[in-house]
Amino acid sequence: MTPEYNHSTTGALKTAIDFLFFEWHDKAAGVVGYGVSGGVRAAEHLPQVLGQVKVADVQAAVELLMHADFEDYTTFKPAAHQEDMLSKLLNQVVSWSKALRPLRM
């Protein structure tokens, strides 16, 4: 999950990804972005970063809007359709993780 900060992911997340460089190899990931515009620019940039550490990102993504999926911008209360999107994302991550398992052995 990444918030959008200056049209990208946060520096803290990028540092964490860089620090754990080898631990990410041959794994799958789904991207959940949040922000005023659903974190779409961060969600678009994050797969580029993950690709550099050999992470396969899945096609499905979840974009959470601050005004629709958070009550008073603080309490997480996702809209009903977000459950379906998250389910698709998780199913894809599980499938890709299973497919990539032989590369990690």
Task: Write structural notes for this entry.
- This protein is α/β, with parallel strands linked by helices and 105 residues long.
- The chain has one domain (2-104): Flavodoxin domain (Rossmann fold), CATH 3.40.50.360.
- It is 47% helix and 25% strand.
- The chain contains 4 helices and 5 strands.
- A 3-stranded parallel β-sheet has the order 1-2-3. Strands 4-5 form a two-stranded antiparallel ribbon.
- Helix 1 (11-19) links the parallel strand 1 and strand 2.
- The longest helix is centred in the last third of the chain and has 24 residues, at 81-104.
- It is globular.
Fold topology:
Layout: E1 2-3, H1 11-19, E2 27-35, H2 40-51, E3 55-65, H3 66-69, E4 70-71, E5 75-76, H4 81-104
Parallel strand pairs: 1-2, 2-3
Antiparallel strand pairs: 4-5
CATH class equals Alpha Beta
Report the count of strand segments: 5
| CATH architecture term | 3-Layer(aba) Sandwich
Kindly give the count of domains: 1
Helix-residue proportion = 40-55%
Instruction: Tell me about the largest β-sheet.
Output: 3 strands, parallel
Give me the secondary-structure category.
alpha/beta
Under CATH, the homologous superfamily reads Flavodoxin domain
Short synopsis of the structure:
The protein is built from four helices and five strands, in the order βαβαβαββα.
What tags apply to this protein structure?
FMN binding; alpha/beta; two-stranded antiparallel sheet; Flavoprotein-like_sf; 105 residues; single chain; 3-stranded parallel β-sheet; Rossmann fold; 47% helix
